[in-house]
Amino acid sequence: MKLHTDMPGRTRTGRSVIAFVTTALLTSAVTGCTAQPTITGVWAASDGSPTKTINDDGSCTGMYYDHGRVLDIGGPESCHLSQGQTNGLYDLVVQQPPNQETLQVKLDGDTMTVYSGGTVVTALTRQ
């Protein structure tokens, strides 16, 4: 079976793959595609509240805040980070059923500043 080619040594499929990869790389460069930051780890809070833990699977402890204070009603918590916003903040959705809170966080290396309604709730430092 002979493959149809317009260029010696290259098939149409091969050129299509090269075009696709080139387009993907250029799109990534133009849009400033960056990796999603990680929030996993053990965090110490500046507000004096207990140490917080965020695991790879999204489970977390001590992250549910209500009116600026840590609230733990018992049961598991989950933490999920949104895509970044243009202002450099991320939405952090914390659930401890039946409660859910959406906080905003600013990440800077091993520091995560947590906001609620535009007000700083606490600053967390990864241990």
Q: Which keywords apply here?
A:
single chain; 127 residues; alpha+beta; eight-stranded antiparallel β-barrel; two-stranded antiparallel ribbon; 1 helix
Structure description:
- With 127 residues, the chain is of the alpha+beta class.
- It has a domain at 41-126.
- 16% of the residues lie in helices and 41% in strands.
- It is built from one helix and ten strands.
- The protein has one helix spanning 12-31, and strands at 41-45, 52-54, 59-61, 65-66, 69-70, 77-81, 89-96, 99-108, 111-116, 119-126.
- It starts with 11 loop residues before the first helix and ends with a strand.
Concise synopsis of the structure shown:
With 127 residues, this protein is α+β, with helices and mostly antiparallel strands. The chain has one helix at 12-31, and strands spanning 41-45, 52-54, 59-61, 65-66, 69-70, 77-81, 89-96, 99-108, 111-116, 119-126.
* End-to-end separation: 62 Å
Spans of at least 5 consecutive residues with low confidence: 14-31
Mean pLDDT: 82
Oligomer: single chain
Helix content: 10-25%
The rounded Rg comes to 22 Å
The biggest sheet amounts to:
8 strands, antiparallel, barrel
Number of DSSP-assigned strands: 10
Which helices and strands appear, and what pairs or packs with what?
Blueprint: H1 12-31, E1 41-45, E2 52-54, E3 59-61, E4 65-66, E5 69-70, E6 77-81, E7 89-96, E8 99-108, E9 111-116, E10 119-126
Antiparallel strand pairs: 1-2, 1-10, 2-3, 3-6, 4-5, 6-7, 7-8, 8-9, 9-10
